[in-house]
Amino acid sequence: MIVTKTIPDFSSPVHVDQVGIEERASRVTKRSIKNETKINGLKLALNMIDLTTLEGKDTDGKVKQLCYKAQHLHDVYPDLPTVAAVCVYPSMVKTAKTALGNSGIKVAAVATAFPSGQAPRDVKLRDTKYAVQNGADEIDMVISRGKFLQGEYNFVFDEIAAIKEACGDARLKVILETGELVTYDKVRKASDIAMYAGADFIKTSTGKISPAATLPVTLVMLEAIRDFYYKTGKKIAMKPAGGISKAKLALHYLVMLNEVLGEEWMNNEWFRFGASSLANDILMQLMKQKTGVYQSANYFSID
């Protein structure tokens, strides 16, 4: 396919079939998964996690502990994959980069006045450049939802494009904060703007408001990625984040991913989960499959 640089008219209305999206998302939860496939799916989901700590009380010690966990998820279980990345604030990037060493685990940093996005563009650019200069492999930015909801789509487009340029070689995840966009139509339009502006990933949420990621919203975004790929030949990655804490739900997301985008997207280059507690639940389920009994949550670190 030939990549085109044609930019659509973002002022044009977008119409998403709400009933159809919700019905299809509901059907995904009813799929039957055989035991071997389930185990493989759980390991794949584990390898797709961005292990995250984004609290005002984060310390160097907490981030180091998270990085240790990222590399040693459960030492008594052989052949477990690592997570994909550790996601922290820009001020903690250097600590995370040092702690992860040559593990191959990426360092992702939230930037652009996360989670509100309420800052001047020059502040957002400095925030991004600071994270990259300190070693961030990936940047998770938030769009200016206020501007988007006012219909200032070109402002949102230009801001994403500017942040993308500031990322240099780092991959850019664009957070839509879908819970604040409310309608599927707006989620689809924001997805399209982000992709045409240069996003490497589109991401549902900051995890700081409710609702965060949902299966129907993720389906809307996956379909936007599919259509963008058909039009441009460019693959875009997806990251649902927030509210995904159970292994069973993660498997539903993987079923949906496979049905909409196919095998090429079934790896952590093209799909991530933004989560903090999901890893522990997956580990508990894997140990149940291995030993026949659930281990106590006390066997797994909180961070």
Summarize the structure.
It is built from twelve helices and eight strands. With 303 residues, the chain is of the alpha/beta class. The chain is globular.
Task: Give an overview of the whole structure.
- It is a single chain.
- By secondary structure, this protein is of the alpha/beta class.
- The chain has a single domain, classed as TIM Barrel, CATH 3.20.20.
- 47% of the residues lie in helices and 11% in strands.
- It has 12 helices and 8 strands.
- Strands 7-6-5-4-3-2-1-8 form an 8-stranded parallel sheet.
What is the percent of helical residues?
Answer: 40-55%
Q: Could you name the CATH homologous superfamily?
A: Aldolase class I
CATH architect. name: Alpha-Beta Barrel
> Oligomeric form of this entry?
single chain
Envelope shape: globular
CATH topology: TIM Barrel
Number of helices: 12
SSE pattern: HHEHEHEHEHHEHHEHEHEH
Number of strands: 8
The averaged pLDDT comes out at 92
Terminal CA distance reads: 44 Å
**Radius of gyration from CA coordinates:** 19 Å
Summed up, the domain count is: 1
Classified by CATH, the class is Alpha Beta
Amount of beta strand: 5-15%
Residue stretches low in confidence (pLDDT < 50, at least 5 long) are: 1-5
Structural class: alpha/beta
> How is the largest sheet built, in terms of strand order?
7-6-5-4-3-2-1-8
Q: How many strands, which pairing sense, and closed or not: the largest β-sheet?
A: 8 strands, parallel
